[in-house]
Amino acid sequence: MGHHHHDKKSKQDEAAGDGRKEEKHHKHMEQLAQLGAAAAGAYALHEKHKAKKDPEHARSHRIKEEIAATIAAGSAGFAIHEHHKKKEAKKQARHGHHHH
Q1: Model's pTM, two decimal places?
Q2: Where is composition skewed (Low complexity) in this entry (predicted)?
Q3: Where do the domains of the chain lie?
Q4: Which of 37, 56, 66, 83 has the largest count of CB atoms under 10 Å?
């Protein structure tokens, strides 16, 4: 009588699984942000070069360079933010996993 089945995961197992999933998500976001920063940085350099080659439109190129540099800085900041979120998720996954 009274057989007790454990079909559901324990709360700790679930928390550890969620933590790993969250860690992966933040890792991907960090990589995307790094790509964005690199691309925007490259574009800023490209516009800086164009400003020298094309003095007639230098002002336009400098504005584009400034915008791209701002985007690069924002993307880099976001990458750092995601890196910290990833570390937090990893820590939570570890702690959730060790408690039985």
Answers
A1: 0.70
A2: 31-44
A3: 40-90
A4: 37
Look at the block and give the residue holding tokens 């890792």.
27
Phi (first) and psi of residue 3, to 5 degrees: -70, 130
Residue whose tokens read 């408690």:
99
> What is the chain's mean pLDDT, rounded?
85
How far apart, in whole angstroms, are the C-alpha atoms of residue 54 and residue 19?
Answer: 51
Separation CA 80–CA 84 (nearest Å): 6
| Half-sphere exposure (Cβ direction) of 69: Cα atoms closer than 13 Å | 11
For residue 19 the two structure tokens come to 């933590």
Residues in the chain, total = 100
Mean pLDDT of 22-44: 95
Contact 63, 32 (CB under 8 A): no
Non-local (6+) Cβ contacts of 92 within 8 A are 15, 19, 22
Answer for the pair 56, 31: CB distance below 8 angstroms, yes or no: no
